[in-house]
Amino acid sequence: MTDFSEWFHNILEEAEIIDIRYPVKGMHVWQPQGFKIRKHTLDILKNILDETHEEVLFPLLIPEDELAKEAIHVKGFEEEVYWITHGGLTELNKKLALRPTSETAMYPMFALWVRSHNDLPFRFYQIVNTFRYETKHTRPLIRVREITTFKEAHTVHATREECEEQVKTAVKIYKEFFDMLGIPYSVSKRPQWDKFPGAEYTMAFDTILPDGKTLQIGTVHNLGQTFAKTFDITYETAEGEHEHVYQTCYGVSDRVIASVIGIHGDEKGLCLPPAVAPYQVVIVPIIFKKGAEEVLNFCREIVYKLKNAGLRVHLDDRDIRAGKKFYEHEMRGVPLRMEIGPRDIENKNAVIFRRDKLEKETISIDSDAFIDDIKTLLDNISTDMKDKAWDSFNAHIRSAETVEEARTKIEENKGIVSFNWCGDEPCGKELEEKVHVDILGIQEEDVHGVCINCGKPSKCKTLIAKTY
Ligand code: PR8
User: Fold this and answer.
1) Band of the pLDDT at 60, cuts 50, 70, 90?
2) Which residues form ligand 1's pocket by a CB distance below 6 Å?
3) pLDDT of 2 strictly over 80
4) What is the pLDDT of residue 95?
5) Which residue of 41, 61, 218, 420 sits 20 to 30 Å from the alpha carbon of 100, by its own alpha carbon?
């Protein structure tokens, strides 16, 4: 892929995922193919969250005074908030914000809900659209002004320890989620100057897109008692005392789908992991004038069997050339294609084409055992795609002993460079300027060595990269 940005825009259009022609900057239309990928991605996360969280739905609008209550939080978002000032022709006496995220929508309600230690912990999530007036260059799915698929979780705890534990659990949840999509990631603690506004600290997931730049694909924030104190969220302890709660929040967005598309895709277009592919298997009948109906009936039977086994299968019986169908399904990233013609029926075989490896093989369809074979193939595809993505990711993580080495490595092929750093803000900011990168965060604490920039004793191993 020579120019990732161009490739990405082309494939969104050609595979009918997103239409970017909607006349509001940073706001796009999900088309049916994209919507299906989005739905399957959501289902995966919902299944994981539903085990320990409850889904809720809060209003889109936040009153100005609630949004303004938490000073650091509002400062962090002040340039990004869309405001509603009028209802029809009437000027509102209290402006309403379109949620940029939902802390200030939810937490005044949490203050009403939390009563006693018996109520805790609370673990809620919602999947909504949020609005951020991004001033940096907008890009479909990657940096949008309407984040259409914001999956945000908010938890409330009685103790600091439990809250810390939840941060670790949330990191595990996102690892499981990204693993199912075959998206590689690094997890690091963002530097203090780059944490979520109002958080004590932020753990962030970054992946690497094919142009070598990193994309933040998810964050987990330990909010401590900051918001609890602002919104007066207290609970009664067993001893009858009133204490402020501890909170976490974490979220992922449409960027997850951008990563699936970008990381697995290739020159032929999309290559979708079976977990999110709209169709996991497409059957293309190879039809000649004679015996066409027989082939089609046979294929319908195969579709029926695979569907019954829980797979997403499609019979492409359009009256167009098979070659055109092959091209289309490859471009759309269908993981497996089955080709079945009269000779295959005779031999009780089918030709299988794996999108990830672009390889053909013949399988027997003599008995229903072929259903398990197809399932195994789909599992192998998932694993192989994930391994390939991780191999490429790991090849883009290198370490450096000096600032010069870090700069050269970043300039050569971008990716992530790791090194020892003292952890001090002025030194970190100087480093960012010298190497023209961002510090992603601290990957490992208590690593004793020498800071590559200032020479002072280092406390941690940090990661830098060119970022989106
Ligand atoms: C929170 N509050 O809001 P966060 N376009 C696409 N994706 C985006 C954009 C954008 N403009 N901005 C952020 N993201 C917390 C946690 C509730 C949930 C994605 O956290 O501001 C990024 O991947 O860090 C980011 O990690 C995630 O949303 C959560 O946003």
Assistant:
1) very high
2) 101, 132, 134, 143-144, 147, 152, 196, 216-219, 221, 249-255
3) no
4) 97
5) 41
Residue 101 per-residue DSSP state? S
Judged on CB neighbours under 10 Å (0-12, 13-18, 19+), 399 is middle
| Boundaries of domain holding 418 | 400-465
Q: What is the CATH number of the domain that holds 405?
A: 3.30.110.30
Mark whether 183 and 290 lie in a shared domain: no
Residues 259 and 293 in one domain: no
CA–centroid distance, residue 326 to ligand 1 (Å): 37
Q: Are strands 201-208 and 397-399 parallel, antiparallel or unpaired?
A: unpaired
Q: Measured in angstroms, how far is the CA atom of residue 83 from the centroid of ligand 1?
A: 19
Looking at the structure, do residues 340 and 286 belong to the same domain, yes or no?
Answer: yes
Instruction: Looking at the structure, tell me whether residues 147 and 107 fall in a common domain.
Output: yes
Q: Are residues 434 and 326 in the same domain?
A: no
Which atom from ligand 1 is nearest to the alpha carbon of 217? 23
Structure tokens at 177: 């989620």
Nearest-CA residue for ligand 1 atom 20 is: 251
235, 264, 293: which is the final residue of a domain? 264
Which of 255, 264, 179 has the alpha carbon at shortest distance from 7?
264
Report residue 446 as tokens: 């208590």
| Interatomic CA distance for residues 203 and 194, integer angstroms | 11
- Burial class from Cβ neighbours inside 10 Å (0-12, 13-18, 19+) for residue 384 reads middle
Residues 224 and 316 in one domain: no
* Nearest atom within ligand 1 for CA of residue 218: 26
Q: In the chain, what's the furthest Cα-to-Cα distance?
A: 85
Residue written as tokens 């800071």? Answer: 451
Residue labelled with tokens 């970043």: 410
pLDDT score for 446: 82
Question: Which two three-digit tokens encode residue 328?
Answer: 């289309």
Q: Which atom of ligand 1 is nearest to the CA of 138?
A: 11
Going by their DSSP bridges, the two strands 122-131 and 54-55 should be labelled as parallel
Q: How far is CA 251 from CA 127, 183, 386, in A?
A: 10, 16, 22
CATH number at 77 reads 3.30.930.10
Q: Which residues of 440-460 are buried (b: 16+ CB within 10 A; e: fewer)?
A: bbbbeeebeeebbbbeeebbb
> Do residue 297 and residue 257 come from a single domain?
no
Higher per-residue pLDDT: 460 or 386: 386
Q: Is the peptide bond before 457 cis (omega within 30 degrees of 0)?
A: no
Identify the pLDDT of residue 444: 83
In a domain, 385, yes or no: no
Burial class (CB in 10 A: 0-12, 13-18, 19+), 51: exposed
R_g (Cα) of the chain, nearest Å: 25
Structure tokens at 95: 């402006």
Residue 130: CB atoms within 10 A of its CB come to 21
Asked whether residue 321 is domain-assigned, the answer is: yes
- Cβ-contact 151, 45 below 8 angstroms: yes
